[in-house]
Amino acid sequence: MSLFLKRPLTAAIASQLLALLILLSGARLLGGVDLPAWQLLLIQGGLAALISRPFAMANWWLLLHLLLPVTVWLAMSWQIPAWIYLAAFFLTLLVFWNSAGERVPLYLSNITTWKALAMLLPEQSDFRFIDLGSGVAGTLHYLAEQRPDGEFVGVESAPLPMALARWRCRKLSNIHLFRQDLWKQDLAQFDVVYCFLSPEPMSKLYVKARKEMKPGSLLISNSFVVQGCEPDETLELNDRRHTRLYLWRM
Asked: Which of 34, 70, 102, 130 is the most buried (most CB within 10 A)?
């Protein structure tokens, strides 16, 4: 599969265009189809959802594929001003920046997870903790308040979550936030590396961690395992989604 089609956004566009081509070709072969527009558009969305399956896209893309054609048709029928589309597009892009390129949606850790992470922090002071894909920095803010003797670093590439995180953490001097690609971050200087990403990057991240992290340090993944590599420990949390933390000791 080409690099172009490995990106969810481009794969989604390709799926919709191919579905439209199949629908138009089928209608022409049948000499026309006497169905309401909304039904034809639902068929297109369903075809796009099926076509997208080989691209290993997240399940929520299936619903998006199904509803997108009908949604666009309704918006055009209601004559919504063009600037609203543009504003909605840019707002979505600012929030879900990582999902389009890295297949990493914006996941937010809950307070049960924060408390569990606090128990996993080193007992000694002057430790360093990093959250790869820190979002709006809820995890960092909680931990930094609980352990003012540690240093907490967040790496996030999505612009809007990073802006919100900087505002949220402005009064905590032991938090440092960087808007950058997580793959450019050296992990050698950290005692604990935490991530809540997606299945897609975990194998690559584990290789990076094994190469860079120092002996005795800890890699923690929220919910997502590394295929073919059993964690040293698994913690199942007592929350609504039965969160699991996977731990690898370097």
From this structure: 130
